Amino acid sequence: MHVIPIASGKGGVGKSLLAANLSIALAQAGKSVILADLDLGASNLHLALGFPSPKQGLGTWLSGAKLEFHQLISPTDYPNLSFIPGDAEIPGLANIGMPQKNKLAKNLLSLDSDYLILDLGAGTGANILDFFLLSGRGIVVTAPTLTATLNAYLFLKNSVFRLMWDSFKPKTRARTILETLRKDGGSLQRVYVPEILGRVAEADPESRAAFDQRMAKFRPRLVMNMLEDPKDADKAQKIRRSCREYLGMDLEHLGVLYRDDMQDIALGSR
Question: Helix or strand or coil: residue 33?
Fold first, then answer.
């Protein structure tokens, strides 16, 4: 099963519409697809699919309702596409705890489908990063505005640091280096990932090897959405250069999508 988490550093850049339309396109190509709304706390993906307001979803399941996980999966009007609704308007689910997160991840990864597409919330919360890192081939959606491109880069930076934190086990020299940096926000803001990894390689080669092994599988992809000027496509290359230079990461650019007013009409009519 191909797992494709779709995230964005900033809201309003078209992440959910991309998730919905990518899922429909794959289903129309004959693939079995499950689309899950993991924007917990602000779930609205059902609107883009023309799906009725869900009476039960991940929110009811996480809140302890007597439901089997497979009962959350509903067919849609699109052949081959199934949908798992989000929080079903249950408040307080944006920050689920570690046991709930692990339980949800385990159930999602046990599903049987050609593709599992996860529509995540915007931003760099720990839960969003962890669900993004369930796959090394997630998609980050951004727009040409300065705030959106900066936040896309910051999302990827946070993802790399999350990978480091998971790779450097407690009480190792590598974890100590990272904890020291975290205590001094200024250092963490300025430091390059390759520089940190150089220090770790000298102090704790085992932790460096563990991180390299995980990082080799982390190959996220970028989509530049809502373009109005073809020159805006160059901004994707700037993000890629920053990722290569400061994060030691090769970011794949999937392509661009131009702004289309028809999306507002389509969404308004569900």
Answer: strand
CB 126 within 8 A of CB 11: no
Chain-centre distance of CA 38, in angstroms? 9
Q: What is the pLDDT along the chain (270 residues), one digit of tens a residue?
A: 999 999 999 988 999 999 999 999 999 999 999 999 998 878 889 988 988 887 888 988 988 778 899 999 999 999 999 999 987 666 667 778 888 899 999 999 999 999 999 999 899 889 999 999 999 999 999 999 999 999 999 999 999 999 999 999 999 999 999 998 888 766 667 778 999 999 999 999 999 999 999 999 999 999 999 999 999 999 999 999 999 999 999 999 999 999 998 988 988 888
Among 234, 231, 252, 233, smallest CA distance to 243 is for: 252
Global pTM value: 0.92
Tokens of 268: 């308004």
Work out whether strand 115-122 and strand 221-227 pair parallel, antiparallel, or are unpaired. Answer: unpaired
DSSP state of 244: I
Say how many residues make up the chain: 270
First to last CA, the chain: 29
Which tokens belong to 77?
């009007």
Of 149, 137, 144, the C-alpha closest to 254 is 137
Main-chain phi, psi angles of 86, to 5 degrees: -90, -125
Whose tokens are 């974890």? That residue is 175
- Rg of the chain in Å (alpha carbons): 19
For 53-170, list the strands marked E by DSSP: 74-75, 81-84, 115-122, 139-142
Q: Which residue carries 């799906």 as its tokens? A: 51
**Pair 114, 68: CB distance under 8 Å:** no
Q: Which two tokens stand for residue 143?
A: 């727009």
Which residue, chain included where needed, has tokens 């980050």? 140
